[in-house]
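tool_call: predict_structure(chain=1)
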Amino acid sequence: MGNDPFAGLTSWVEVSRNALSQNLALFRGLLNPGTALLAVVKANAYGHGLELVARICASEGVEMVGVHTADEVAALRSAGIGLPVLLMGYLTAAQVDGVVDSSVHVLASSREVLDGLAARGRRLGVALPVHVKVDTGTHRQGVDVADAAEFAAAAKRMGLNVVGVATHFANIEDTTDHTYAFLQLERFRTAAAAIQAKVGPVRWVHAACSAAALLFREADFSMVRVGVSLYGHWPSKETYLSWLLAHGRDGIRLQPALAWRTRIGQLKAVAAGSPIGYGLTFRPTRASTIAVLPVGYADGYPRSLSNRARVLVRGRPAPVVGRVCMDIVMIDVTDIPGVSEGHVATLIGVDGEEHVSAEELAEHAGTINYEILARLSPLLPRIEVE
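tool_result:
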């Protein structure tokens, strides 16, 4: 019992090193030779644990990791992870001073950010690395294609080192018609060529997210950014269908890396017709055994799963009954023999022959697998497993 990493835990997240390693190897095999991998570890590594995943990625030879916030950069450095970091989100001047150094690449799309980086570089006596973010049609962050070359030239004049140019696709996951994605790709090629004509060769040219990295070698360039599929998930049903249409079923298998488990905190005998939970939304039609789980929407289990989802206990499914509460979920274990308080219940993951996926929960909750994973509470312990 003393060697059990889960002893004493009421709820925890398991992260499989082998699954992450296999997914990284899969992309190494898919990409054009020489294309680098950036592992996107923003949003607490899509719920898997920022430091844990970044450490595994470093050991697997990933060239760079990508985050959204200055706090995430600080957390990586505090954990002793020295990989180059691409900081993709908004930065204030104070944050530039707090976290940016020559190993932190900033994805820049505003002159204010360039000003802050240039001032920081002068104080450090180095030319800080920047990647120019080009807006090729998503219309959120980014410099317009027509302005990208001059933006890069301005960065260089300010003493910054323009080492990258990047864009992001707007409509590559939710469709099997990739016309708009290829239009963006053409715009990006135009912008990248114009930038390099102004400032010279750029080391990191990157456009591909997980979907593009799976489907289109034309988007590889010198680096791809792998996010949700690093963790073993297809970006969408449409991406998977696009793969099947192009390649058939053979040759690729993403391995989900995360399992979320908890323990049964109480068993209750409930008479037929007795209401369960807030709002009296469920009444069993027979005498039932209800298990109470010490997790809820505060932990990232959506309230919209009330009376819809299933949890695995002893390798068998148990339906969620009643409303999901802030800290409690109720499940019906009447048909599962031998259940006791303290038994493990699997919210996401495999138990015996059964499997509850993030995609299944997303379908019930009316959302996407990204949100199910990313909203898992950072307070839940993350434990690496083989």
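agent: The chain has two domains: 31-247, 258-385. Proceeding to next step.
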